[in-house]
Amino acid sequence: MPGLRTITFEQIASAVEGLCIKANTQIGADVKEALEKAHAAEASPLGKTIIGHIMENNAIAENELVPICQDTGMAVVFVTIGQEVFVEGGLTDAINEGVRRGYEKGYLRKSVVKDPLIRVNTGDNTPAVIHYDIVPGDKLHIMVAPKGFGSENMSQLKMFKPADGVEAIKKFVIEAVEKAGPNPCPPIVVGVGIGGTMEKASFLAKKALLRHIGHHSEKEHIAALEKELLEKINNLGIGPQGLGGNTTALTVNVETYPTHIAGLPCAVNINCHVARHTEIEL
């Protein structure tokens, strides 16, 4: 179309196909570095051994191009599209076609059911959960973050009153991790969303999982909160795979958004130690 940059259905489908396979077979450099640091710092001999096995498993998956974990997740896709981009053939359809191909060609487990109550498998891991953001420009950025449900099922949401304050939020986050115990396969990444509305807080918690480990919030008081929560969570003693130790979480990432004068929503979303996500810009 005149004045717009065209990106084809096939370009998008092919890109998403590759991202699905890569996210499920290769951990990010930041996660790899965090695990190496955790291995060196873990006080529990058993915990240190477990982290060593996790690192070995990750290396085998990358070298042999096989899934890091048998739960290859529901495909969660974050799309940032420029206003000057025209997608030929339909963006949502192209993304789902890419997921379909990636899970088939990558020999990834198909884990999606057509109806949450009838429970019949779709057979191709579609549809994906897709979040869109429209921005100025002519680029298309796609991030694929397959989400396993051992960790997803540990999610929690609480609608606090403003008077409850930050101490109630700290208690809620720590208790969410404590209740999760070994279920999300620690060491984990903890995403926290504060503000907005009920669904916005949940989205923020999910988006927080995508931030590189070691990068703290640019807001000074939120960065301090992240560090305090990480210390308290690691003092719970849950440890790697829930068998004890001082490495329960690799990081805590907190994202915030303006909210109503009468509200203080807070959501917690947890990732396992794989923390799968990878991205491309077209």
What's the count of strands?
10
Tally of helical segments = 8
Helix content: 25-40%
Name the helix and strand elements from N-terminus to C-terminus, one letter apiece.
Answer: EHHHEEHEEHEHEHHEEE
Average of pLDDT:
97
Distance between the termini: 17 Å
Q: What count of structural domains?
A: 2
Q: List unreliable stretches of 5+ residues.
A: none
Radius of gyration: 19 Å
Task: Note the beta-strand portion.
Answer: 15-25%
Structural class: alpha/beta
Largest sheet, spatial ordering of strands: 4-2-5-10
Q: Quick one: biggest sheet?
A: 4 strands, mixed
Query: Judging from the principal axes of the Cα atoms, what is the shape?
Result: globular
EC number: 4.2.1.2
Domain Fe-S hydro-lyase tartrate dehydratase alpha-type catalytic: 15-280
Family: Belongs to the class-I fumarase family.
Enzyme class: lyase
